[in-house]
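Recall that a protein's primary structure is simply its ordered list of amino acids. Everything else, from secondary elements to tertiary packing, is in principle encoded there. The following example makes that idea concrete.
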Amino acid sequence: MVALPRFDLDAFLALPRLLSLHLSPDGSRLALTVQTVAADGKRFAASIWEVGTAGDDPPRRLTRSAKGETARGYLPDGSLLFTSSRPDPESADNGTPDADVLYVLPAGGGEPMRVLAPPAGLGAVLTAARSSTVVVSAAVHPGAATFEEDGAREKARKDAGVEARLVEHYPDRWWDHDIGPRQPHLYALDLSAPGGEPPTPRDLTPSPPWAGWFEDMHFALSPDGGNVAFGAAVHPAGRFKADLAVVETGKSPLLRVVINAAVDHSVMDWSPDGSTIAVASTDLGEPGVAPRFHLSLVDAPTGATKPLAEHWDAQAQELRWTNDGSALVVTADERGQTPVFLVALDGTVTRLTSAGAYSNLTIAPDGTALYAIRSHLNEPPVPVALDITRADQEPRVVSSPMTWEPLPSRVEEISTTAADGSELHGWLVLPQEAATEPLPLVVFIHGGPISSWAGWHWRWNAALLAARGWAVLLPNPRLSTGYGHDHIARAWDDWATLPAADIHATVDAATARPDIDGERVAAMGGSYGGYMSNWMAVTTDRFKAIVTHASVWNMTMERDASDAGFYMDREFGDPLHNRDSWHRQSPHSRSDSLATPMLVIHGARDQRVPLDNAHALWMELQTRGIPSRMLVFPDENHWVLKPQNARLWYETVFAFLDEHVRGQPWQRPGLL
């Protein structure tokens, strides 16, 4: 167990990061993907560990390459699939650098076998409970019938010095990369004879039915490996929805659109008998009409749909069928937690966990135990076991490489009442030891906006600030998940005023405490949280400093330049015809009110909120002589993902807050 007498940036970056878990077919062991800082300190690298579910044996590391590996699931015989960009010693051409290659590690041990190496790497990898059929996604150039042809086309482009792409569909970018010229395909592999020749992939979508809208697809492979269900815009018509579709994995694959409606279909799972697809969906929404979240049971052959637990308006983040097909296990936000729920087919909903945020659900073969990853605001992720029949239980922590002493911080819930009488809820993260004098307060504003503060956060870590003597407030204002439909609907098409009033009310409640100094308060947020930070900067002077990361400054510019501006149209309408709705809540329209010192942070590769937002805000701050700094990461996207960049991010934020809230001299980070 690692002792953490001081929780500083060194200790934070040294924490192993649990990314995923997979359960072996016999239920005896878990494969954990654990990420740590690479030896050169410039990136994170993952390795795969095996731990016993009974907790008797110590963790055992299975992979050790410098490039790192990610576990992708077990085959029925106990062989483990994983992806890695490790080079092939037997090949002179290893394809695109850092492209993921599929390997299989035999159940009895030995050297992993290279299974599939698409030149552009792999996306999804799906395994089946009762079949050795594996389905993967990989992108290839238009007209390329094989990966060899795709590699030849890419080589021809490089030899000619061509990087151009012809855009035919929107969206044409996603988060941090261009879509195209390669198009994503689904492939089926037969791995029934591991150890032999690598299987020939079978293209299930030789003529891809989607038009660029593939990037955030969710997949599920039926237990017999015969069908893949997914949500994607198969017939886009300007609404950018995600249909529910099924494609067979046989020799003559047939693709069917099961549900074509004004709905986004997201997470899904096949029933044990393969007849029914459980799916979570969301209405698209429109100005004045907030989306609703739904659970449904869909008859796979006919598409006949039956609502499930209609009274429960939570947004399912994961779902799995129980082994006997009598219920679903589901994760969803609830009052700042992300519990596991058991949803019976009669609509009865039972919460299985008492506290924490859960993900990566997997059910034991005997159907009684459930394994997952659990975290809390001041507790990093760990693998845990649950009893699938007990309500509001504390989990059993499974032996793993992620063990450490408790962090030097504590978490308290905070509640207050909004101006309209609605209850508001959030979290306070405080130093472990009681304060001898009132603490400065920093307010973390979450992104989304349809999101919530729940669980551990590697990019917005409140425990780090608490260890430096700050109180950290994490409010969940209107538009936050986990508080019912009305909590979102009341602020639908109002990003600004009602959520801002809720944040102010929660800050009022926090600063009324004797252990918090109401005169030393800062605000910071990223993405939508950055937008709200900008809104605070032009509407209030209560904050001594504001940090805005990857933030929206000009609403119409964001809509026109973002990779996914269509999401904003669902809420505010077309800006050409709804100008007032866009202009009145765009922070840039109130630039004359800027006065608070601001730190502006942005990744140059961010396509979700393009860098022009930061440049426009920076121009307004500088021309008005407002104390401000701008930190730009040329090699980062919407998030800051490299370890040394993360260190610089935190060092700069700490120094800026200390300067303007605590009155300490500015300490420029050494590498800046």
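The chain has a mean pLDDT of 93. The two ends are 35 Å apart (CA to CA).
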